[in-house]
Design goal:
The structure holds two protein chains of two kinds.
Chain A: E1 5-7, E2 10-13, E3 19-24, E4 31-38, E5 42-50, E6 53-57, E7 64-68, E8 74-78, E9 87-94, E10 103-104, E11 108-112
Parallel strand pairs in A: 2-11
Antiparallel strand pairs in A: 1-3, 3-8, 4-5, 4-9, 5-6, 7-8, 9-10, 9-11
Chain B: E1 4-5, E2 10-14, E3 19-21, E4 24-25, E5 32-39, E6 46-52, E7 60-61, E8 64-69, E9 74-79, E10 88-96, E11 104-105, E12 109-114
Parallel strand pairs in B: 2-12
Antiparallel strand pairs in B: 1-4, 3-9, 5-6, 5-10, 7-8, 8-9, 10-11, 10-12
The chains are: A mainly beta, B mainly beta.
Chain lengths: ~110, ~120
């Protein structure tokens, strides 16, 4: 099976702009989660989607949003970018069975200038 | 409050030495899952092992083994006979409750294996 894919891999944006990141889960996986990784805050949970519904949300401002499509692909959007949004954004998918194992993609490295 | 604590920031060993990574967690749930992930320089988090709160049996999988002790809320991970390819950042993570896929990660331990 192909793994989790994320596009784009690298992105440079200017403060105030918005950005959309994409994640394609492992085939058959219906749960998609997003995480932000920064040197200062480490790995932090953003949100999780299952069957096009947000099931869980972390402590991030409303500028961070996401959605999931019927084919389980997910996008996350960050509006009005701030310098502090520079991070590695990781997407993870899970079969949502009883294993709770999450498999991560390679991430999107976002740099805000 | 930090739910997962990895007290070791960095560990450096010579190839073939064993490496033990410490992890202490905090939760009020009786059902939870613990994980270890590896993040090599490429950046992708690689799933290593999972243990649920009802199974304290410690196991060995290849060169990996783990010691889960509910009494001390610890979930330690050992790499036996380390290799240079084991050099990475290792994260301990906690998922609380049934149906909750939110992972709370520790700060990570950087392992450097020298040839």
């Amino acid at each position: 099976k192909a793994g989790v894919t994320q596009t784009p891999r690298y992105l440079i944006k200017t403060r105030g702009q918005q950005v959309t990141l994409s994640c394609s889960p492992i085939s058959g996986h219906r749960s998609v989660s997003w995480y932000q990784q920064t040197p200062g805050q480490g790995l932090q949970f953003l949100f999780e989607y299952f069957s096009e519904t947000q099931r869980n949300k972390g402590n991030f401002p409303g500028r961070f949003s996401g959605r999931q499509f019927s084919n389980s692909r997910s996008e996350m959007n960050v509006s009005t970018l701030e310098l502090g949004d520079s991070a590695l954004y990781l997407c993870a998918s899970s079969s949502s069975g009883t294993s709770y194992e999450q498999y991560f993609g390679p991430g999107t490295r976002l740099t805000v200038t | 409050a930090q739910k997962v604590t990895q007290a070791q920031t960095e560990i450096s060993v010579v190839e073939k030495e064993d490496v033990t990574l410490d992890c202490v967690y905090e939760t009020r749930d009786t059902t939870y899952y613990l994980f270890w992930y590896k993040q090599p320089p490429s950046g992708e988090l690689v799933f290593l092992i999972r243990r649920n709160s009802f199974d304290e049996q410690n196991e060995i999988s290849g060169r990996y083994s783990w010691n889960f002790q509910k009494s001390t809320s610890s979930f330690n991970f050992t790499i036996t006979a380390s290799q240079v390819v084991d050099s990475a950042v290792y994260f301990c993570a906690l998922s609380e409750g049934l149906g909750d896929y939110k992972l709370s990660f520790g700060a990570g331990t950087t392992v450097t294996v020298r040839a």
